[in-house]
Specification:
The chain folds into 2 domains: 1-31; 43-204, P-loop containing nucleotide triphosphate hydrolases (Rossmann fold, 3-Layer(aba) Sandwich), CATH 3.40.50.300. It is built from 9 helices and 5 strands. The chain has helices at residues 6-30, 53-58, 61-70, 87-101, 114-123, 132-139, 157-169, 181-188, 190-197; strands at residues 76-80, 109-113, 142-148, 172-177, 200-204. Strands 2-3-4-1-5 form a 5-stranded parallel sheet, with helices on both faces. Helix 6 runs parallel beside helix 7 (157-169) and helix 8 packs across helix 9. Residues 15-21 and 23-37 have low confidence and may be disordered.
């Protein structure tokens, strides 16, 4: 048998490389979808982190200090305050700090507006279980639920179920709301309010003095 020429060897190597590349791509395409590398947050809060000067302009020092201290702990946190007191800015800053402190959590952490949870169930076909967003929110290691109370009252059942399920499973949950504890109880029921606030760190957000 004659020895293969350099050209023939090169052609063989190219063929193997192309076959391997196609097989690798096919395996990726057929595998399960990969989780995002970090939680997706609104673009307008892309700046938010505890060392950002703008955060000091939006909310009080006491709220920033408590939020930063609790962001690396495993527990429930509720940020309460009127509009414009930096609740969402703090929530995103906490999420970033948690992902930096526990890098693996970024694969299962989820930032989600409350109205998106409600709308997801409203728009999902009946009889087909829960929509993917709610399933992910239910099982995520950390959920940052923004603006509780912004959803329509007629569609708040999905929020109630989510909080009940996460408290039962003892999964870390953070939430922001412009409602007081009494307002939450009046709107969602006393059982919901207890699950949201009891054994939770409540951070009162105010504008800086």
């Amino acid at each position: 048998m004659s020895a293969a020429s350099d050209t023939e060897i090169k052609q063989l190597c190219d063929s193997v490389a192309k076959t391997w590349s196609r097989a690798t791509m096919a395996a990726k395409d057929s595998g399960p979808p990969r989780e995002p590398e970090r939680p997706v947050v609104p673009m307008e809060f892309g700046w938010a982190r505890f060392d950002a000067p703008e955060l000091a302009v939006r909310t009080s020092f006491a709220a920033r200090r408590l939020a930063e201290a609790r962001s690396t702990e495993r527990g429930w946190i509720v940020l309460v305050g009127a509009a414009g007191t930096g609740k969402t800015s703090l929530l995103v800053s906490m999420l970033r700090a948690a992902c930096a402190h526990r890098p693996r959590i970024r694969f299962s952490a989820l930032f989600v507006p409350a109205h998106s949870i409600a709308r997801a169930r409203e728009q999902y076909p009946l009889g087909e279980g829960e929509p993917p967003l709610i399933e992910r929110a239910t099982r995520s290691a950390l959920v940052a639920l923004d603006d509780l109370g912004s959803e329509r009252e007629s569609s708040q059942g999905a929020i109630v179920d989510l909080i009940f399920d996460r408290r039962l499973a003892d999964r870390c949950t953070w939430a922001t709301t412009g409602l007081s504890a009494d307002d939450v109880a009046n709107r969602y029921g006393g059982g919901f309010a207890r699950r949201l606030f009891e054994r939770s760190t409540v951070i009162a957000c105010e504008r800086p003095a």
